[in-house]
Amino acid sequence: MRRDTIEKVGPWAVSPNLLDYGRACAEFSWERARALLDGLPGGRGLNLAHEAVDRHARGPRRDQLALRFLSKDGGRRDFTYGELAEATSRFANVLRSLGVGKGDRVFALLGRVPELYVAALGTLKNGSVFCPLFSAFGPEPIRARLEMGAGKVLVTTEGLYRKKVASVRAALPSLEHVVLAGDAAPSDIPGAHALAPLLARSDPRFEIPATAPEDLALLHFTSGTTGRPKGAKHVHEAVVAHHVTGRLALDLHDGDVFWCTADPGWVTGTSYGIVSPLTCGVTSIVDEAEFDAERWYRILQDERVTVWYTAPTAIRMLMKAGVELARPYDLSRVRFVASVGEPLNPEGVVWGVEALGRPIHDNWWQTETGGIMIANFAALPVRPGSMGRPLPGVTAAIVGRGADGAVSEIREPGVEGELALRPGWPSMFRGYLGDEARYAACFADGWYLTGDLARRDADGYFWFVGRKDDVIKSAGHLIGPFEVESALLEHPAVAEAAAIGKPDPVALEYVKAFVALKPRYAASEELRRELLGFARTRLGKAVAPKEIDFLPALPRTRSGKIMRRLLKAREMGLPEGDVSTLEGSS
């Protein structure tokens, strides 16, 4: 099979929502996309939770399965759209009884359990602001975010509170209520309430108050290179993008069973783990357990998943386990597979065809964009390693700065520059919490500057090069780490790879790579030399790494992104900066 382009594999089970890309782009408008949603009854505005739940519960989908939760111990719990509407209305009434109102911040420190989803949607119904946290966070990252966000309510468990919050509670004067999942609230936890009895005695009916499209709805914290995390603000209008990208980029159809594996502490876990599939009226699978290759294949088979949204890290771990592991499972129902979190290496796309019978469709977006901006679509050829093409309604370009500092578009194909977007899509963030200067610096000359370097080919496909801070400058060459890493991943021994630049007195920098091996391979000087030669053959002397170190695993965030800056800081003995989103940190 050619690795530069993968055409559609096998017959379509259903016709893709986007068949003619050119026509879709020409005819699309955000106004028409907004008209696909209902709005609050009586013209009282637009509320994200109403579009995700209540409008379905009042119609023919009331008894359709909305969410199926799979617990770690093998149990399951189902919510129809009608049941989800009642549960989230009860939670909204709980907030109201606690004096929590419009604009107040409700944080959730929970895993993938029903209480998280009920709290998120109930918070949005109430006009309050939902702020998810990674349950694996330690006390200091939790304190920083609750303090920055002026959290009034924290929904968590007693165990997580005692382990993660109790030691920093004194530094959180705005935190009035701690709502604990379960039946009891110990008296030694200040402001504690047991969630189950609160829900049981609350009214299952709730009238969503008037909600302006620009009212703040979601607050997502994203790690900065140094210093404090950034709080990206998103509004209720974002639901327009969540809905239409679910239809066009993830190809969600009526009757689909959708599984998004993202942690709820990450923006994907909210935008596409909660909101988008519900607005599209499909059934979502939610798995409480952490990654386990056999469990994942079993879920795909037993739950008859049709659309699967996961991360490159998970794909690489499945690849590491071997394609043979997938063979006993019936994965024929899987119609569309997509990936997000960091660029998906070409080998991962091709592996999808071998293991799943479908290529994996990479797409690109950021916490700041709030939704998918660039994607490989179901009906278009997949170019392994490419992010794809912009969504209808999204204007993307490669830009550079002139001598006068002005930003202008680079129209010549294949030229590297900064990926930029024209502002105006509904899910665009509306600011960084408490840092308007930083927000303003993201925009110049009519463009939102993403901080990612990329190139666009002659057919309009975009290709990731690297973050501006990650690009390696060596002897006049600008080297994207992704290119180096993708080449190393073609070697059968390599499970993961990361590349950084190290100082050089002559070339300015040279490339150093870090590699994690597949289980049946052992680190050795012979393998190191083999990998160096392998990379040089594929990349050429100027781009190939000069050094390779072996690591048991590469540091990455909980969203799956390899933390190259952390590898570089450790290599150079420099400060590590903000590591609160590092996988395994506490």
UniProtKB/TrEMBL annotation:
Entry annotated with the keyword Acetylation: yes
Chain ranges of the AMP-binding enzyme C-terminal domain: 483-561
Superkingdom, taxonomy of origin: Bacteria
Key words of the record: Acetylation, ATP-binding, Ligase, Nucleotide-binding
Domain AMP-dependent synthetase/ligase, chain residue ranges per copy: 55-433
Enzyme Commission number(s): 6.2.1.1
Keyword Plastid appears in the UniProt entry: no
GO molecular function: ligase activity
Matches recorded under InterPro entries: AMP-bd_C, AMP-bd_C_sf, AMP-binding_CS, AMP-dep_synth/lig_dom, ANL_N_sf
Matches recorded under NCBIfam families: PRK04319.1 (NF003313)
Protein name: acetate--CoA ligase
Source organism per UniProt: Anaeromyxobacter oryzae
Taxonomic lineage from the root: Bacteria, Pseudomonadati, Myxococcota, Myxococcia, Myxococcales
